[in-house]
Hints:
alpha/beta, six-stranded mixed β-sheet, four-stranded parallel β-sheet, 17 helices, 14% strand
Amino acid sequence: xxxxxxxxxxxxFPAHVRDYLIPRYSGDVVYECIGCGMTAGLDRFLYxxxxxxxxxxxxxxxxxxxxxxPGSLWxxxxxxxxxxTLEPLRGIFLFKxxxxxxxxxxxxxxxxxxHTPLVRANAALSKQVGLEFFVKNDGxxxxxxxxxxxxxxAISFINYSIRTRGITELLGICASTGDTSAAAALYLSYLDKxxxxxxxxxxxxxxxxxxxxxxxxxxxTVIEVPGVFDDCMRIVEELAERYQVCLxxxxxxxxxxxxxxxxxxxxxxxxxxxxHLVVIVPVGNAGNVTAIMEGFLDLYRLDIIPELPxxxxxQSSHANPVAVWRARGEYIPMKVRPSVAQAAMIGDPxxxxxxxxxxxxxxxxxxxxxxxxxxxxxxHMLQANxxxxxxxxxxxxxxxxxxxxxxxxxxxxxxxxxVDSTSHQLKFANFQDMYFRNAFPPEYExxxxxxxxxxxxxxxxxxxxxxxFLKLKEK
Length: 475
Ligand SMILES: *Cc1c(COP(=O)(O)O)cnc(C)c1O
Ligand SMILES: [Zn+2]
């Protein structure tokens, strides 16, 4: 199946990178507890520390070996590798040595994820925000959100585990605000159905119709329960604790490995010049922001980038535990209120302990959190999409957060700014529709502005009628 790497025309590449183009390094990756430091091998699925119940991360104990290759050579390796026609290296595994070296190329599942475009904000939008910036359009992943990055690493790991551990039965399960289940169901459906079953748990009525249609379309068992995401999360955590299931939420540190690719790509797309870089990220369960920080740390440690970027985490005032923590120094799980940034509507982010650890250890003067209201979120989405962009409500949240960060002096004109639009506009079309019809229930606290409303116009099927409506001039 896998094209023989040795048959590739490697002699077309410069001699000093040739030997590195096909990754051969497999590292020494282990689970490591962020609480007590316990380590465990990857020969099982683990989500929390068996001893102290803290979160786990993955650590490559051989990482320092990678330092033998200078940063400048790593940059060339990753850049030339993009020209290779080797399927497993087309997506996030382009950065295999630092992403997740353990997985053999033959086990990599590639469904087209990663390498999403970095699009320069149009002139009108930049003017409105107050500076130039880029939107990284992660809605252009296969299931239309960044969750595919982490799912590609998790499902590749499952694929590898099935082959090497002789697993004959596996049930993949996740709780979701919509996009995790779309991604999990898509990637699991690619594996052997005689072995793998796919189950997703959703809060009833709290995912969009598009997001509900995705796991249904991929053939997953979709279970709806009353409550919000935090309730679903508690249930799957209990299931993972007591039964033989494979948990696919970002609590699974293997998801984080894949999501680091966002940071690697941003660096590569900017020619690795991360001086004065700011990355703006919407935060829900805090898996994404954790992965992005870890990804930039990898690059920094290997001298691939000159500087760590600043991270601005954005939250809605209806689901803001991280923003409150950053402002007051105290972390208090909260009860969420309805938000159009529904994918980030989480009151007790599972990965918060990792955020705290990363901020304290590495990003203390480079991590900011801002809070925006619902009106700002939806209007920044609508305005961006009227300027040639394709951003979701969480992308709108990011841009609204950037405006706040500019106004409060956190972000300045001389900086390079990348805004994360985490999913596709179409997934959240219902919120756009509610805005255009002025149909938001009061708890959203959104009052539409006439100039942003757009509706279809019904006219007779006649050129004359349409020309007259458009006030067209005759030739
Ligand atoms: C999951 C998700 C988020 C939040 O990411 P976390 O890792 O949970 O913080 C933001 N936007 C979209 C579109 C998502 O699907
Ligand atoms: Zn522990």
